[in-house]
Amino acid sequence: MDIRPTSAAVEIVTADLARSLDFYRLLGLDVPGGDGPHIEVQLPGGNRLLFDTEDTIALLHPGWTPPASAGRLVLAFGLGSPAEVDAVFVRLTEAGHRGALEPFDAPWGQRYATVVDPDGTSVDLFAPLAS
Q1: Which helix (H) or strand (E) element contains residue 22?
Q2: What is the pTM of this model?
Q3: Which residues is 122 bridged to in the sheet?
Q4: Cα(127)–Cα(90) distance, integer angstroms
Q5: How many other CB atoms sit within 10 Å of the CB of residue 20?
């Protein structure tokens, strides 16, 4: 029997759900209202981004504790233009979120930047450079 996933999602376990949702709204995602403890966001391309509070995960997984530091997960969001990369970076950093890598023209042909969400997850922003 050939069993394959029929959909995919990425889940963020957050210490401060409201602050995380505000970050991803500023990023430009259509995040529904509500205060959790579980929120789902439809992503472009048909996948989903899920948010759960640390308390929710601790209830599901007895003995679970939050990691001491951010893991190896990086989210990446393609934007429509290099100017949008710059604008989203400014919007997020002016709202108090850390900019880990200021926008630059990468040698692989993209405008590229990295911001960090409230839980320490790196979020890359990119758009193709004009040809």
Answers
A1: helix 17-27
A2: 0.85
A3: 74, 116
A4: 15
A5: 22
